[in-house]
Design goal:
389 residues, 9-stranded mixed beta sheet, two-stranded antiparallel sheet
Length: 389
């Protein structure tokens, strides 16, 4: 084990300052690479945490009706029969969908609610607690209200129904949506939402089933299939699997960036391994002529490389944390935001995973130290006269 020698450490510090410009360039490049990799890891961990939170709110089973293998509306004929199935805790016939807002070239979500029902999603419960929702009125997310205002829809908005009739909806209030998958959102009564979508009175988008006993999942699905032979049963696990698959696909871009960064770092290391400046060679030759042992020279080089690599690593991680904290991962976070169900994340809930940080550390610090020692060792083992020439 290498023992610490304070005099050699001080000498290593002086050497670093003597080649300040060169070492500063290495520190900057090293720090930026570590900062980039750490930022990507932090963003990946944070986005996955938030996506998992969304998935945890999904119903245990969603009954989606199909016609010609296309999703279609479902009627509420069998709602009471679903309640009677052993293991079912609650059943909600849901109304929701997308409305194409051609003027702004985007689609926003419409969610129909019944104020007498227990709201399963926290953001809906919060919105409906703030004010009473009346028929013919709607609550808008802050972003959607601002978008409407830009197009002079400040008090009401005209929806075009499938029958080409126009339905006017008053804008009651706006709210800040904490639901990261619903930035552009309109909340209204189920009756109003049905009119806009052209549903009949007994039609709904799907039926959400919540269980009191997860062990009854397969039994409940079997009985639901008997009630709705043409319907597709989507479980919470199915939804989570779909999101994870899409997340892994987007992570491919992250892996590409990771490989490019690591490749860049190893190119720097390779260049350092195969080239030692003439001034460094002369310094090693002088030290040998003065009677320094090979192990003392290598110890100085280890101190130099350790100071540069550890300082750059720590500063790179701090830089990444600052980038996420102050700039919210702007630009890099977009890599992961094409995931289904996550239209846009207003702010990242920063999560730090130590495992990827350890990977970055062991891929960079020991490699850089080795890349510094090897060429120095080759020179230090030569005669001083030969090195000086």
């Amino acid at each position: 084990m290498i023992s610490f020698n304070s005099q050699l450490f001080v000498y290593a510090l002086h050497t670093l300052f003597r080649f300040f410009t060169k070492n500063l360039f290495v520190v900057i490049v090293y720090t930026l690479l570590v900062g980039l990799l750490s930022s990507l890891f932090f963003i990946q961990t944070s986005v996955k945490y938030q996506v998992d939170k969304i998935a945890a709110q999904y119903p245990d089973i969603v009954v989606q009706n199909q016609k010609a293998q296309r999703y279609t509306t479902i009627d509420d004929t069998n709602l009471n029969k679903i309640y009677e199935i052993y293991g079912v805790n609650d059943v909600v016939a849901r109304v929701y969908g997308e409305y194409e807002y051609k003027q702004a070239d985007l689609s926003f979500k419409i969610v129909g609610v019944d104020i007498f029902e227990t709201q399963k999603e926290p953001y809906l419960e919060s919105v409906l607690k703030s004010s009473e929702l009346r028929g013919g009125e709607m609550f808008l997310s802050k972003e959607l209200a601002e978008l409407f205002a830009k197009n002079y829809y400040r008090d009401e908005f005209n929806f075009l129904q499938p029958s080409l009739k126009v339905k006017k909806m008053g804008i009651a209030q706006s709210f800040k949506s904490d639901a990261i998958d619903k930035k552009y959102l309109a909340v209204m009564s189920k009756e109003d939402a049905k009119e806009i979508f052209g549903y009949k009175a007994n039609e709904f988008t799907d039926i959400a089933v919540y269980l009191s006993n997860q062990n009854e999942l397969m039994n409940v699905i079997t009985q639901l299939q008997q009630l709705y032979p043409n319907a597709k049963m989507v479980t919470k696990e199915d939804e989570q699997t779909n999101i994870e698959m899409l997340f892994d696909y987007d992570s491919g871009i992250f892996i590409t960036l990771f490989i490019i960064s690591i490749f860049t770092f190893f190119m720097i290391v390779y260049d350092k391994t195969n080239s030692v400046s003439s001034s460094e060679k002369r310094e090693i030759g002088i030290l040998k002529a003065l009677g320094w042992r090979v192990e003392d020279i290598l110890r100085v080089k280890i101190y130099e490389a350790s100071i540069i690599s550890i300082f750059s690593y720590i500063f790179g991680v701090v830089l990444a944390l600052g980038y996420l904290y102050f700039f919210d991962g702007y630009y890099l976070r977009d890599i992961f935001l094409n995931i289904a169900g996550v239209e846009q994340i207003d702010s990242l809930e920063l999560r730090v995973d130590l495992q990827p940080l350890a990977i970055v550390f062991f891929l960079s610090v020991p490699v850089y130290i080795a890349a510094t020692i090897i060429p120095s060792w080759k020179i230090a083992t030569q005669d001083a006269d030969e090195v000086m020439r």
